[in-house]
Amino acid sequence: MPKRSSETDMSPEAAAEEHARLAQEIAEHDVRYHQQDAPTISDADYDALRRRLDHLESLFPTLKSTSSPSAKVGAAPSEKFAKVRHVVPMLSLGNVFADEEVEDFVGRIRRFLGLGADASVSLTAEPKIDGLSCSLRYEKGVLVTAATRGDGFEGEDVTANVRTIGSIPNVLKGDVPEICEVRGEVYMSHTDFAALNVNQEATGGKLFANPRNAAAGSLRQLDPTITAARPLQFFAYAWGEMSAVPAKTQSGVVAAFAAMGLPTNPLMRLCYSVKDMLDVYRAIEARRATLGYDIDGVVYKVDDLALQARLGFVSRSPRWAVAHKFPAEKATTILEGIEIQVGRTGALTPVARLKPVTVGGVVVSNATLHNEDEIARKDVRIGDTVIVQRAGDVIPQILGAVLEKRPADTKPYVFPDVCPVCGSAALREIDAKGETDAVRRCTGGLICAAQAVERLKHFASRNAFDIEGLGDKQIEFFHEKGLIRAPADIFTLARRDAESLTKIRNFEGFGETSVRNLFAAIEARRHIAINRFIYALGIRHVGETNAKRLARHFGNFAALREVGIKAADPESEARAELTGIEGIGAVVAEALADFFAEAHNEEALNALLAEVTTEPMEEVAASSPVAGKTVVFTGALERMTRDEAKAMAERLGAKVSGSVSKKTDLLVAGADAGSKLAKARELGVEVISEDEWLARVNG
Ligand code: IVH
To answer: Is residue 277 scored above 90 in pLDDT?
Structure first.
């Protein structure tokens, strides 16, 4: 927990006062979040408030009481809505801000598809509606389910509420595919929003901060009669599962939706060049104030669906679409303090504590200051009036100080050189090129409580072990109680509890049912896909994508571990094997070697592997004829670019390698293939042409 001198120097009375203030603030945020669907701060900011409260209590233990928010664990109410699994995930969009980035986006598409300079690619441009996305499932033309986006894979069932939205038909007209999942944005117009707030005020209800919060709060109502009284609207712009797609283009499908009776946005235009796209962007931006509903940018999508399919996805966003956001909104406020947070890898991140200010409809009280150099470069000082910028869902940023308003007694900020949590030295690494890392890191490693807690949170998080009921707050709680210190402890928790070492149900906030659910959720994760397992370890530079690359290459964890240990020597064959994996470079290979060389990690892994078993990688198209095969592409490909070929192979579960070895299963040779082809022949590796490859994977 960051030690802020203001707290350590505090008198007990001042601490009690600050504690009461924090407790009150947290309680208010709890209500806004859980009951009103209208949070005014980000989760990270909320967590920071709770950490400050915990910290005060650790300095002044008498402040702890059962009524303190720190005693509540898992405050979230039990699931209000039934869950709906999205057969086709609801993904998000990448953002761009500058015109050049739009050009880069189109350039990337052209390169990926290998389009010549004269080949044109058309894209749609349409407003990005600032509401909440919703998936409407029609079967035989009749609305059967409506779901929110949720985490993209699972949303909330809001069917009863959506049925009350006037412009969403319960029955579609004309020629409708048997299964037709329409996706779009639910929003509230400016006039309806204003009227709703007037009414709320008159009836003593709470006021909504902006139309998006009002729309979200109205749609996520347990009582559909309340939703019915709230004027919501909808624009269809995408789709999920479809038994037959009604057109070959994005614009064609949207036109088909309109013909079925669904509302679609009238401002969508087809563009044939970057210039067209930027023209539409500016035209839409010019109309922004008079549209009558909030938009926060323009979305571009490749029009041809066959090209969309070839382009596919990177992580959670399509390669074929992007959001061109409008410029960020700005405001000025006072920088009240700078708090240093310590992350999973020990990075010390400065967070600006601000006098709350409204920027673009949201109250901002924290902003990122990035790192030490950034603070020095901007010379922002505590007490300064600063300019805060917020762009969409991006963390607010501090642009600089208003020097004319600087109070006389400010001093330049001195960045700490010890970890505020564990007191270990905090250093800036120097890389191979002799350059100093921008980030200062705590060297405390495993002894640093902040790093340990952050690592555990990562381990249990959704894309890692995904243990339900073991969220950030619970991890902090169990860590503080000394019950979970290393990943394996999660899996021995129930056993230890049964041996009555701890009896978690005696802790405040943990009912019989929640403990039973938690233990069951942990039990359910004793078998885990290898890619998730690797990702969960939190090895530096090994995110989900690299974890998948490693999982695909090694197939099982023991093989990765063996190579990882041997890779300690930078000149070893093992190190070369790692860097030979497509997408894995020297930095990642070194991080892996460092991870496996660390004795504590070895110990933690042994303990963990005694509790869990890894299973084959998930998301591999098991039926694909190339699943699990190692493929090398060489020579000039004519029907697809190298990037596209790689992406396609990986999508089908193959490993793509850059060099031919005994482990290669298949060499796809284009025109003028050279040494790799010769080597493959020599090793007896199967060699096929580009056309044969396409026939094999499409057949
Ligand atoms: S297309 C696979 N089109 O923006 C891409 N999204 O940042 C599907 N949004 O979750 C999204 N207006 O809630 C698309 N015209 C539009 C949009 C739009 C608003 C939202 C949507 C999505 C988010 C992604």
So the answer is: yes
Query: What per-residue confidence (pLDDT) applies to 1?
Result: 37
Strand, coil or helix: what is 493?
helix
**How much distance in Å is there from the Cα of 149 to the middle of ligand 1?**
11
pLDDT tens digit sequence for 584-620:
989 899 999 999 998 888 999 999 999 999 998 876 5
**Does the domain at residues 630-698 carry the CATH identifier 3.40.50.1220?**
no
Cα dist. 158→91, 219, 220, 347, 621 in Å? 19, 7, 7, 41, 32
| 602 conformational bin, left if phi > 0, alpha if psi -120 to 50, beta if neither | alpha
Within 10 angstroms of residue 445's Cβ, the number of other Cβ atoms is 16
Give, rounded to a whole angstrom, the gap between the first and last alpha carbons of the chain. Answer: 57
Question: What does the pLDDT read at residue 267?
Answer: 97
User: What are the pLDDT digits (tens) for 456-484?
Assistant: 999 999 889 999 889 999 999 999 989 99
Q: Can you name the CATH fold of 529-615?
A: DNA polymerase; domain 1 (1.10.150)
Is the backbone of residue 637 left (phi > 0), alpha (psi -120 to 50) or beta? beta
Crossing angle of helices 690-698 and 642-651, in 10° steps, is: 30
pLDDT number for residue 501 = 66
Type of residue numbered 596: F
Nearest CA to ligand 1 atom 16: 128
| Average of per-residue pLDDT across 619-638 | 80
| Residue 78 pLDDT class (50, 70, 90 cuts) | very low
Query: What CATH code is assigned to 83-322?
Result: 3.30.470.30
Q: How far is CA 360 from the centre of its chain?
A: 22
208 lines ligand 1 (CB under 6 A): no
Query: Distances in Å between the alpha carbon of 549 and those of 48, 112, 137, 244?
Result: 34, 20, 35, 33
Q: Is the CB of 614 under 6 A from ligand 1?
A: no
CA–centroid distance, 231 to ligand 1, in Å, is 21
Question: For residue 75, is pLDDT > 90?
Answer: no
Q: How far apart are CA 324 and CA 562, in angstroms?
A: 45
Tell me the domain boundaries of the chain: 83-322, 529-615, 630-698
**Residue range 497-539, pLDDT digits in tens:** 888 666 787 777 778 888 888 999 999 999 999 999 999 999 9
Per-residue confidence (pLDDT) for residue 7, from 0 to 100: 53
Give the ranges where 184-293 is alpha helix by DSSP (H): 190-202, 211-219, 224-228, 250-259, 274-287
CA 129/CA 558 separation, integer angstroms: 48
**Overall average pLDDT of the 394-403 stretch:** 87
Neighbouring CB atoms inside 10 A of 427's CB total 16
d(CA 238, ligand 1 centre) in Å = 8
Q: Which atom of ligand 1 lies closest to the CA of 317?
A: 2
Q: Is 397 in the pocket of ligand 1 (CB under 6 A)?
A: no
